[in-house]
């Protein structure tokens, strides 16, 4: 099952998966700017932002069903298989409906595509942008369907097989993207080649699944649309949550265009955020390795081990960010300037602000990840809805500027990550404010990093300041590591068993 060996394998392949995500994030921007220009980059940004919103509800349903499969697996394998098979049947039908809806909206009404790309209907027709957006959406639907088959590997300790496939797919996808950007350059052609990769790899994966796991298709035949619809109804809060969550993450560029932010400012923000999101993607991949263990501890009511995994992931994220940001901050600036080919205006305050916003996101993201993983739809919806209201409210109140768009992000993250998520977890675990303080204690290393970045803005980077900040940071992390060592006297007092509301 989920042994130490499977976690090590998962971590290895997750690390390679992160390398591919990092390479894609880092290589695409300079290549696009060098060979295709800023207009191509802007279209790429808006295409991905629109696609994230379009598929937000679809992704949420898949994750909801997969979570139920994992949670039931430890109690009733037959029921788990029935739930997953029914979910796949319903999702296949839903994918046909979604694809048909996209075809009608995008191909018959070019104005919808023009609104996405902030251009005219004439340009949409001349550059075949409706076909591009439709093909990209359908390609991503196909890739999302494969995640149902990933679920078969998760509770039996074979999560690493999913990452292995993702690594192979990512290599193929990145190679095709790079070659098409360098040699073809036309936006529509580049995206259609990318969609062809989705189609080919999906067919190959499903073909291999037929050969290696024929029992998976038996479960699909045994599943029912009625159960699939039941799962869909239960996932509606997740669907709403996923949609509005995208407004503050993958689709933030589209939101800024709604508030009449100039495209130059959007390019600035997205380019820097691409750099910071590379770190967020790495942590997300790392914490995914522990999903089966977390779900196992949740099912068994072992809150002590859950809390320990929380602290372990936070500590890992803090150490990575502490070394990168406190010690290597000037290097990050120089890397960005080289990376962007000096074709996007530099803004040091925005650069620092987005790194501070990233620290807030890293802390709160784990708690949201946990709530989603155990299908706690109501607290997830409350958190994401209020976060979005906070974000849009700040964007409405604050004057249009790059810095204010970052302040809005940071304000929304403070609301959910520092104030709301710890409160929701304390209620879920039937505890009081003491549990909230335990969770917030893990934020102290992130806070030290943020304060150090603010000091760099005020007085400039210097080696004594960096060393001083890192010594304080290292002392806090070391103290926390000592207190949280498993089976230590301190840990046994601080992490007593608490009831989990399953």
TrEMBL record:
Chain ranges passing through the membrane: 12-35, 41-61, 82-109, 129-151, 163-184, 190-211, 308-332, 344-368, 380-399, 405-426, 438-459, 465-485
An annotated GO cellular component: plasma membrane
Statement: the UniProt record of this protein carries the keyword Transmembrane: yes
InterPro entries associated with the record: Poly_Biosynth_Transport
UniProt superkingdom: Bacteria
Membrane-topology annotation of the record: Multi-pass membrane protein
Annotated coiled-coil segments of the chain: none
Localization (cell): Cell membrane
Keywords of this entry: Cell membrane, Membrane, Transmembrane, Transmembrane helix
Name by which UniProt lists this protein: Polysaccharide biosynthesis protein
Species, as recorded: Taibaiella soli
Lineage of the organism: Bacteria, Pseudomonadati, Bacteroidota, Chitinophagia, Chitinophagales
């Amino acid at each position: 099952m989920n042994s130490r060996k499977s976690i090590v394998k998962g971590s290895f392949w997750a690390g390679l998966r992160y390398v591919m995500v990092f390479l894609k994030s880092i290589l695409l921007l300079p290549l696009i700017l060098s060979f295709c220009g800023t207009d191509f980059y802007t279209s790429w940004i808006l295409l991905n932002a629109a696609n994230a919103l379009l598929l937000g509800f679809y992704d949420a349903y898949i994750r909801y069903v997969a979570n139920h499969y994992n949670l039931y697996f430890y109690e009733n394998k037959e029921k788990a298989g029935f739930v997953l098979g029914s979910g796949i049947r319903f999702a296949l039908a839903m994918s046909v409906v979604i694809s048909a809806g996209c075809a009608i909206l995008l191909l018959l009404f070019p104005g919808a595509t023009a609104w996405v790309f902030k251009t005219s209907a004439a340009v949409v027709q001349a550059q075949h942008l409706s076909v591009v957006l439709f093909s990209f959406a359908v390609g991503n639907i196909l890739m999302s369907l494969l995640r149902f088959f990933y679920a078969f590997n998760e509770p039996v300790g074979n999560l690493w097989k999913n990452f292995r496939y993702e690594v192979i797919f990512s290599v193929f996808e990145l190679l095709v993207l790079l070659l098409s950007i360098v040699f073809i350059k036309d936006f529509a052609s580049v995206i259609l080649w990318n969609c062809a990769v989705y189609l080919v790899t999906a067919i190959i994966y499903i073909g291999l699944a037929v050969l290696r796991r024929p029992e998976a298709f038996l479960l699909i035949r045994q599943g029912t649309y009625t159960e699939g619809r039941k799962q869909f109804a239960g996932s509606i809060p997740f669907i709403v949550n996923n949609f509005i969550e995208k407004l503050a993450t993958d689709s933030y560029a589209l939101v800024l265009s709604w508030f009449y932010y100039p495209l130059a400012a959007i390019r600035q923000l997205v380019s820097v955020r691409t750099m910071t999101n590379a770190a967020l993607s790495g942590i997300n991949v790392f914490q995914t390795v522990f999903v089966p263990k977390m779900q196992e501890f949740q099912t068994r009511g072992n809150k002590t081990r859950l809390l320990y995994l929380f602290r372990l992931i936070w500590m890992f994220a803090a150490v990575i960010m502490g070394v990168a940001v406190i010690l290597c901050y000037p290097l990050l600036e120089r890397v960005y300037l080289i990376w962007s080919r000096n074709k996007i205006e530099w803004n040091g305050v925005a650069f620092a602000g987005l790194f501070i916003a990233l620290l807030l996101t890293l802390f709160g993201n784990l708690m949201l990840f946990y709530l989603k993983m155990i299908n706690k739809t109501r607290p997830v919806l409350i958190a994401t809805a209020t976060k979005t209201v906070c974000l849009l409210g700040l964007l409405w109140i604050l004057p249009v500027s790059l810095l204010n768009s970052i302040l809005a992000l940071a304000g929304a993250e403070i609301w959910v990550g520092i104030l709301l998520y710890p409160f929701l977890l304390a209620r879920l675990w039937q505890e009081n404010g003491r549990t909230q303080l335990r969770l917030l204690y893990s934020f102290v290393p992130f806070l030290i990093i943020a304060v150090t970045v603010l000091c760099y803005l005020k007085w400039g980077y210097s080696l004594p300041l960096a060393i001083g900040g890192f010594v304080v940071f290292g002392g806090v992390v070391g103290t926390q590591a000592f207190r949280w060592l498993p089976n230590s006297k301190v840990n046994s007092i601080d992490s007593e068993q608490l009831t989990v509301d399953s």
